[in-house]
Specification:
The structure is a homotetramer of 411-residue chains.
Chain A: E1 7-15, H1 22-32, E2 36-43, E3 52-60, H2 63-74, E4 79-80, E5 87-90, E6 109-113, E7 116-119, E8 128-132, E9 137-141, E10 151-154, E11 159-161, H3 186-202, E12 206-211, H4 214-217, H5 221-229, E13 235-238, H6 240-252, E14 254-255, E15 258-259, H7 270-283, H8 286-291, H9 299-305, E16 309-312, H10 329-338, E17 343-349, H11 352-361, E18 367-372, H12 375-382, E19 388-393, H13 396-406
Parallel strand pairs in A: 12-13, 12-17, 13-16, 17-18, 18-19
Antiparallel strand pairs in A: 1-3, 1-4, 2-3, 5-10, 6-7, 6-11, 8-9, 8-10, 14-15
């Protein structure tokens, strides 16, 4: 086998590489990709606060295999020890990339330029790094925003990511990390979420809520409105439906024709949905409806009255839609990206579409809470990427009600 | 076609047969079974309080078909108008039935004996009616309890069931009747359940709780204990697991090794489960553990202290089990049946096995509430038979917490 | 109570109003809305092929209540017997409606203009009817497409819908109509779907597939490709993800980095997703990639090669997206609407978003099959509106594999 | 902190302790339990075939804490290096244990007796080890079977478990190990299961099927019958329901009253269920019904005709039950345990109750496949204990159909 693997590279790993499972994963990955390794040096922290260090020789049989291995190891924080600078190639046309482009993770990333490590701005999953060699800057950019001639980083040399390490102590979220389950004490989880929200706000971080229409159907609208008034919502992402249902509930007392006081469908009430849309369209927009005194309460009202950074991203199933809904998806993504500055915590409730969309653009350090009655949705969202995500399988209404109580918010 | 259907029988239908969808279902059923019908007389209630009446001629091509049709129509309350008495045949051996046995529904049932309609005692699904002609009595009996020579009703003549009619007004449950959905305002539903519980207790009816182990895991044990202390639980059915978890939580602070204060698994804590079992086995029983002062709080403690009619029915997956668990299934069913006297309302939470077992033996007039985080479970349970069942897709802990608040129960 | 209800209107109901549960629903609705009724005439079909007829007086206490009742009854096919023409009012501005606008169902609808009943073109749910009195035409239109001054129908007079009646015999779908369940013989259902597909194609109807990305992940892509080649797919609606995964699977053998031959994730393979996007963006479009010989097989290839009417409607979670994806939602809806002409059957698989979007714009006569592994999704979709929808809770791959076998399609 | 931890013990770890994540877990556990550690020696395998070794000093502040830590570490294969023999104490009464009893895992376990390591027979989860010092034997025993005076192992000294190590190469199941998902290519998984079944049979291992009633409802009965005839089922565990449905389907063509040819419910067909039960009860048993020629086909027939080791374990929801059903749960567990000898592979389908019951008593080396349409069920089962379990979220019927094809079994 030795003669098959005639190429080698040296990599180093730092930090809690045993405790954080990085070393085993690196070994796994090399073997899964058909390579081999030699651990040439290892220093294991003798007790819990000490860091570990490993130096490994990686063997591969050809360049393509070596490239695949090194690409995979990079996401664990492995650094190739040959001291090369990052390589770049120009984008061939607008909105397209050179073949060997480097695709980012959502972890903090650095590139080596002129022998020095440089932070990449705006790290986010599945983007590319565009380098401005003159200014000495590097930024993440979506493929659609790349312009012909942009210098895009390629290959794997001179690039490193800083893996997340597990915080052990005072880890508010730690107990929720285990497998998603509907049989856990959710009250404890809700207390933990409330504590994290307080901590985030005290530290000046912003909290983002990503919400689906079931919030309104389930009667949880008033709790979300109180969270906004209470200063716990700096950004709000959703779609046309939650806005329409909220308006319908405020103006007509129903949500999709179901009376929210009695829970009974109002016969013929499906019309209320269209009537709510029409009212806002006639007013001009949600903001105009607030200013004209038409909309005086509810989630939309509070979001507007409290200067929440709101993005209503449309979808192909929308009725109407409301004039405030961004119907172009590229524009919607741009606005959602723009709204993330300063966000330290994100709570995603009862929406798969908008939650995935937000998850795609969140940096890894944002603490994410996913709440849904459907365990598949929670699992699907919580499993994506290297997030600090915790999932709660529970009822949105009861969750928000208890959260509001925990945060001691007035009605 | 007329000559194919050379047999006919006359049936009558009374009550809200149009409003309660009985007439359409009768028509449907006759056609689905290949028969035909003539509506010979119909009187439709001119407004909502008036009853309707229909007389129909049913056609079939042979006896077997006619028998199938009449059997099916009986469950809608159709009465064959030929004035015959019920027929009976003796059971051939212990625990077995004559071929043409009549299988009961869970609706009130009457048989005609010597020309007079007689109530059948203990109506329950899928049983048989055993007639004592000397005493002039008729009782429902499970197949296993039938003895050789018992007179078992056969065929379809001289038997009628009284279908449930929809109560329209002040129907506490009505709004929950529609399809099971996780997107409804559960708070409204919980209020309605609380009102129904109050009403049931005020009328002297008993309330049965059927509960699974997730009650304890999810931290809802204390709320259930409060409901028992508050007098809202007269019967409690469950299995070994809920009892063991409850004991473990009271003695060791964990449920299956998960600390209920922190939500974190206690390393090595899986042993706590066996330790709880051993403690009760050493004491002799749950009641003995209460009397010896070993068990001083929790769901089991309260149930014993408050003389709740408790049945812990075993299952093949049980560890231990506790000495109080009934390990023979026939005996467990007998005890569960015996505990149903006076039960007017049943709340089934987080257990499919025990809920189905209870559902099998409940008469149709008992109001049933099914609570589970899994919509499939709720649908499966709510869809069985002709129940007055309503389903809530929600979190057991948040449900019980809110129920306790609605009922204003002290800690 | 009589003196409370001082307004009355006469309505008539025709057809299988008892058998199709229309009469009971009408009675229910009137009472639920606080009105009252008198059945003044009723003729019940004496046997199964005869139609029934009922004339009822509806009582209400004020105009608003009467309006609510009549609006609700209209969707059951009730016709107000006062002989009035439809009323219209001009739209106040572009994209907005007069207050009392009539909101459509997806059932065939007629309006009375100059005393004659006129078909409304393009019936679809939640639209409005715009009348051209000069030309004597009436068309359905989405609110966003209404222009200031358009004559929009208002109120409830002179409007009637033709309710769907249950076909009893030879009803291919009938057995699947009952509650969604994962415990049914899906093979039977798949045979029925195949028969319906054959029947639809023989009658010249088009079949629409609405598909999500799990089709590719689950390895079902080749079966869908065979259905297209076999002439069973005239229209294909989906999003960016299914197209990207399909391209990735054809060019790189993976779907989101998972090798479709081995089922194993390829380490570092998340990059393949972006590489597939980049390849198509460099080619210019999917069609260009086909023409340049880059894309030679797969679902997208077959759809383009076989002139399938394809709409890829974007969403806010899209990566890239591919140049062929319609990123503006209003434009996407327009194209989806345009593609529905001639569609008689729709099969929706593994996508909630695009299925709901399509469901919103389908007329009621289209036969809809919903396939998803998640029962909640199936229930949610199958329960919407008055569709002829049947749901299958099953695995997309095994479903398509068996469908291809049933239809006897070559590889 | 050092002065708090004044107790220490030395432990050693052998094998693929880094690669198999054992070392990180040991570190984690010590810290989670409030202890501390010093890695005094570590030798990391330099490449993939070499084993690693670590020696650690564990610190704790008191005996109770040390005991908790060592108990937890034992399940990872840690061995306390003080050379002590195992300790035992007599059981205080029948069916109860000394306080400090050692609770087993499902991993191979050894105890040190007179300085020599001895294998414990019949390892299974949550049992205790009873030592016969005279004969020098040690056996696992359920608490209920312990007799007063039995020498039960206590504490943590002189006990070690052999942890499972990951096989990397030719690991048929490896690709299914990742998180349960409904979006994977199930065909690949089914091929892998078929290969494993062939391999197991070629090696002389037995295959156990654990099955729920949905097998029959879904029309999959004939495929399971073929698997039995084909020699791929040596043991079959289930309950009353699957047996009754199977008999009903063979004698009357329905399952719970649903015609398996048409998928349509037979009106009045709920009686068929009771009729099937009665037929078998009259015959005396399933075996008697086979011998009398009453039952000539189906799953039960094949199981009896092919000498499959069948256990029908009752439950409290059973109707009837059939005479073959074991209604005492302790007896049912005993029979299930007895049937496991030689079982190398277990396939659990569509039953939570019997799957958990079987999972409780399976040794860790048995390869387990869990098939259910409900992802929660699959997750719940696949997550229990240290199994080699893989889960498939799919349709039981389509799974079995494809499995039969993969195994090339005749009809």
């Amino acid at each position: 086998m030795a003669n098959k693997h005639n190429l080698s590279e040296q990599i180093v790993l730092h930090g809690h590489i045993i405790d954080s499972l990085i070393l085993p994963r690196v070994m796994d990955t090399v073997m899964d990709l058909g390579g081999d390794f030699d651990v040439t040096e290892i220093r294991v922290g003798r007790h819990k606060r000490e860091q570990s260090f490993a130096r490994m020789k990686i063997f591969a049989s050809d360049e393509a295999q070596m490239s695949r291995i090194l690409t995979a190891l990079q996401s664990f924080g492995a650094e190739v020890e040959n001291g090369s600078d990052v390589r770049t190639e120009p984008a061939p046309t607008d909105g397209a990339l050179p073949d060997d482009f480097y695709s980012t993770t959502n972890l903090p990333t650095q590139i080596r330029l002129n022998g020095r490590w440089l932070d990449v701005a705006g790290t986010e999953m599945d983007l590319v790094v565009v380098v401005d060699r003159e200014r000495g800057t590097a930024v993440c950019r979506p493929i659609a925003d790349v312009r012909a001639g942009d210098q895009v980083t390629v290959g794997h040399e001179g690039i490193r990511v800083i893996p997340m390490e597990r915080e052990r102590e005072q880890e508010v979220f730690s107990f929720m990390r285990s497998a998603v389950s509907s049989e856990r004490p959710n009250s404890l989880a809700i207390s933990a979420v409330a504590r994290q929200m307080r901590q985030t706000r005290e530290g000046g971080g912003k909290i983002l809520f990503v919400v689906g229409p079931a919030i309104i159907h389930s009667g949880a609208g008033p709790y979300l409105a109180r969270l906004i008034r209470g200063g716990y919502v700096q950004a709000l992402y959703g779609g046309n439906a939650i806005a329409v249902h909220d308006v319908e509930s405020q103006l007509l007392g129903t949500s999709l024709g179901v009376n929210l006081k009695t829970g009974l469908p109002v016969p013929g009430g499906h019309r209320n949905h269209m009537q709510a849309i029409n009212t806002i369209r006639r007013a001009g927009s949600l903001r105009a409806a607030v200013e004209q005194g038409i909309l005086r309460s509810g989630v939309m009202y509070e979001a507007i009255a409290n200067q929440v950074d709101m993005v209503l991203a449309g979808s192909v199933r929308d009725d109407g839609p409301l004039p405030d809904v961004v119907t172009d998806m590229m524009e919607a993504q741009r606005r959602m990206r723009a709204g993330l500055a300063g966000v330290e915590m994100a709570i995603m409730m009862a929406t798969m579409l908008h939650s995935i969309a937000t998850g795609n653009i969140l940096p890894a350090h944002v603490k994410v809470v996913i709440v849904d009655i459907n365990p598949s949705t929670v699992t699907k969202l919580a499993d994506r990427g290297t997030f600090q995500a915790v999932g709660l399988v529970t009822d949105a209404e009861l969750f928000l009600r208890e959260l509001v109580e925990e945060l001691d918010l007035p009605e």
